[in-house]
Structure formats: C-alpha cells, structure tokens
Design a protein that fits this description.
Layout: H1 2-16, H2 22-29, H3 40-50, H4 53-58, H5 61-64, H6 72-95, H7 101-112, E1 120-125, E2 131-137, H8 149-159, E3 163-169, H9 179-194, E4 198-207, E5 210-213, H10 219-226, H11 229-247
Parallel strand pairs: 3-4
Antiparallel strand pairs: 1-2, 1-3, 4-5
Helix pairs in contact: 2-3, 8-9, 9-10
Length: 248
C-alpha cells in the first residue's frame, strides 16, 4: 500500500508540486528518511506542532525531536532541507540580480575576494538580469586558468541563457588583460553570437578597488565588431579580394 501511495505522491509532485498542501510536501520529503514507514502521520504531527511548513523549517533540532516519531537524525535531515530552502530563497530575493555593470563588478568582487588560485566563472543571466546559474572553473594553479571551447559550448547549450557575464581573477595585482585574455574574450563573443546569447562583459579582478571591465574600457565593443559572424566573414572576404587583386 505504501509503495502505491508513494508513487501517486511522486506523480502529484511531478504534475504540479505547487498544488500540494504543506503536510503533503513534508510527507513526500520524508519518504527518503523513512523508507518503510507511513510518513503521513509524522508530517501531520510536525505541522500541528509548528503551524506550517515554514514553522517546521524554523524549528531547532531539539524542538523537532519533541515530535513523536522524529529522532535526532531525522531532525538534522529536516534542518538540512531547511537550510537549502533558505539559501534558494535568498538567491531569489535578488542577491544575484545584476542589472548594471556596477552590480557585476560588485558581485565579481564578492565572488573572487580572497581566492588563492585563478578562477574563471560564467554567470548565466535571464533577461531581467537574474543569475540563473554559475559555472566555476579552475586549473588549480595560481597564475593560469584555461578554458576549452567545448566547455564554453556546454555552458551555453546547457543553460541557454539570455545573456552571459564572465569574470576571472589575476593574483599578480594587476587586472590588465593579457593577449590570452583578449583571445578568450573574442572566442567567447563569437560563440555567443552564433548561439544568439548576449555577452555583456568580461571582468578581471585584482582587488576590490582594482578591476578591469572589457565593457567600460570599450574593448568589448571592438572585439564584438571584429569577432562576430558578420565580422569574421567580412574580414575573410576582404582578405581574399586583396589576394585576388595582388595576383593580377
């Protein structure tokens, strides 16, 4: 009976989780904690004791264990779920909504501050500037981080973002972009252009007061002109025309 009931609950969650009552969501959450026990009475007891799902998540481990059927391991399990829910709520509240390039610089500083190795991060944005996903990469070396084209393509294909912000850090103390940084940014813009993704900026962090922005420096616009689909095609056609002219 439990197996059939659990399957029906899973189907309800899959179809429309928002339609479930607090006790139903809690009941389903507790399935993994109680593999062979009917979790419905325990879920009801928790809701009755603390008033709501939010009340259950706000309760301490000690308070949770006063409910019949809830041992310490189960109480800790609930607190882990509560912490996950709290972090998601904080993110959705707007901590990672980047609407201006100043927002991006401040966010980069928070992400890169105190790192002991070079880190490269991709911030996938929705149209309203909300960060929907962060991809972080490192080679584990203090002065180098490299990115293969296949990984950039994976980021774009997996998340299908409206826009992309990219940041990495320099531990040398200088945020001045290297030739490799320029090459990477040009390559990234071309891939974004092909996939109809907006590349907003590439920021290099050296310290909280020492950051380089390809956008504010005007360098991103120049790279976009030269390394877009149209730009590359036009350049190649021009070179071929010049070669044909020189052969005459």
């Amino acid at each position: 009976m439990h197996e059939g009931h659990r399957q029906r609950m899973y189907e309800k969650v899959e179809k429309n989780a928002a339609a479930l009552c607090d006790h139903e969501l809690l009941e389903a959450l507790l399935f993994n904690a109680y593999p062979r026990v009917n979790t419905n009475p325990i879920a009801h007891a928790l809701i009755d004791s603390f008033g709501s799902l939010a009340g259950v998540f706000e309760a301490s481990v000690e308070q949770l264990t006063t409910v019949r059927g809830v041992g310490k391991n189960i109480a800790v399990y609930i607190k882990i779920l509560a912490e996950c829910a709290g972090r998601v709520k904080s993110l959705n509240a707007g901590i990672a909504v980047l609407k201006t390039h100043e927002d991006f610089k401040n966010f980069t500083a928070v992400r890169m501050r105190g790192k002991g190795e070079e880190i490269l991060e991709f911030y996938c944005l929705e149209k309203n500037g909300k960060v929907k996903r962060i991809f972080s990469y490192t080679d584990g070396e203090p002065n180098k981080v490299e990115m293969e084209t296949s990984k950039i393509t994976y980021v774009i294909a997996t998340e299908k973002p409206y826009g992309l912000l990219v940041a990495h850090n320099h531990l040398s103390g200088s945020p001045t972009p290297s030739l490799n940084d320029d090459r990477f940014t040009a390559q990234l813009n071309l891939l974004c252009n092909i996939n109809n993704v907006v590349l907003y900026d590439h920021c290099i962090y050296a310290s909280d007061t020492n950051l380089y922005s390809y956008f504010t420096a005007g360098k991103l616009d120049r790279l976009k002109r030269d390394f877009s689909i149209e730009g590359v095609i036009d350049k190649q056609l021009k070179l071929r025309a010049e070669e044909s002219e020189n052969k005459k």
